[in-house]
Amino acid sequence: MYPDLAGKTAIVTGSSKGIGQGIAVRFGREKMNVVVDYHTDPNGAEETVRLIKEHGGNAMAVEADVSREEGMRQLIDAAIQRFGAIQVMVNNAGFSNGCPSHELSLQDWRRVLEVNLTGAFLGSREAIKYMLDHDINGSVINISSVHQQIPKVHNVHYSTTKGGMKMMTETLALEYAGRGIRVNAIAPGTIETPANPTEEKQGKEKEATLEKIPMNKIGKPEQIAAAAAWLVSEEAGYVTGTTLFVDGGMTLYPSQLG
Question: Name one Pfam family in it (predicted).
Fold first, then answer.
């Protein structure tokens, strides 16, 4: 637990389920105020709010399309109106709809880039702008993926967004380090979420997944959330511009083991 986080306010995009929900609930355990963003899952968002309050934090759910400027500003405005300030921004919203690259439609390409990369840019931009205007030493986390480093077949749009997120994170970190704003990324490996329910897979499919992970197990949202809580705390106050891989060793390329 990190006592310095108590009473601070965070926005977590895409936090109605999965990794985003895990991060939001962990912030609740840290006694933070959390704006829970959702786009199509109001019931999941309300469940996240309930869990945050159950763990001692405060929260509200806001529907917003993070790929649009007006959606992101809606989140910022809601946080300020309800909690008075913003110290933490977590750009977690993202998705993929894999298919062979030669069959990928321009519409699907654009939508994945709009949500995954443009959404993270808009969240970072609006949060940094607010922090600068109010002289806040804040923190931004971008939720990336091991696929900022490892290519993912049939997911050229998704991998492109995560590779772009890496450079965006580093550029923003360099630009605003002297202003007291830290910008980092977390790159999860295979995590047990509704979008990736690997624990339910059986037989050869599960074996093939585990063969890519040196620790031979699937990660959990709580483990990503623990990394996020540390990164936004004062214990990580000298950390900026880095990507923290939480992947069970997946980026060590276990196929190279003899």
Answer: adh_short_C2
